[in-house]
């Protein structure tokens, strides 16, 4: 399940992933909020907090996530993935080389730092 994180700065969207993640989570929760933010700010500042294993993402969920990335390729500004799994954080940092925008990985204990960075309150 993916839920929207409330009470974030207005120039970003954030989501928390827990349990099994499906295509419907991206279609009904993530995509509408991403589109709304891009319409409002013309850029995408995005945070995903992983409270589940990436093994819990269905193939459809990965596909929808990839489509979102490609569809909004020129709008990515800052994206943070919050996870205590080092390989996920490393992959996120490497992904930044391949995609427009900046991507950073953060540990769960640094979730507020991730929010500050994604919302452009901090440059870290």
Question: Would you kindly provide a written description of the structure presented here, covering whatever features stand out?
Answer:
This protein is of the alpha/beta class. It has a single domain, classed as Rossmann fold (3-Layer(aba) Sandwich). It has helices at residues 23-41, 59-71, 86-98, 111-118; strands at 2-4, 13-17, 44-50, 76-82, 102-106. The protein has a five-stranded mixed sheet with strand order 1-2-3-4-5, sandwiched between helices. Strand 2 (13-17), helix 1 (23-41) and strand 3 (44-50) form a beta-alpha-beta unit. Helix 1 (23-41) packs parallel to helix 2 (59-71).
How are the SSEs ordered, and which strands pair?
Elements: E1 2-4, E2 13-17, H1 23-41, E3 44-50, H2 59-71, E4 76-82, H3 86-98, E5 102-106, H4 111-118
Parallel strand pairs: 2-3, 3-4, 4-5
Antiparallel strand pairs: 1-2
Helix pairs in contact: 1-2
Task: Jot down its keywords.
124 residues; alpha/beta; Rossmann fold; five-stranded mixed beta sheet
Task: Tell me the CATH topology.
Answer: Rossmann fold
CATH class: Alpha Beta
Given as residue ranges, the uncertain stretches (5+ residues, pLDDT < 50) are none
Q: Could you say which structural class the secondary elements and strand pairing correspond to? A: alpha/beta
What share of the residues does DSSP label as strand, in percent?
Answer: 15-25%
Q: What is the H-and-E element order?
A: EEHEHEHEH
Helix fraction? 40-55%
State mean pLDDT (0 to 100 scale). 88
End-to-end Cα distance, whole Å, is 30 Å
Question: Based on DSSP secondary structure assignment, what is the total number of beta strands?
Answer: 5
Number of helices in the DSSP assignment: 4
Shape: globular
Largest sheet, in brief, is: 5 strands, mixed
Indicate how many domains the architecture comprises: 1
Question: If strands are numbered along the chain, what order do they take across the biggest sheet?
Answer: 1-2-3-4-5
CATH architecture assignment name: 3-Layer(aba) Sandwich
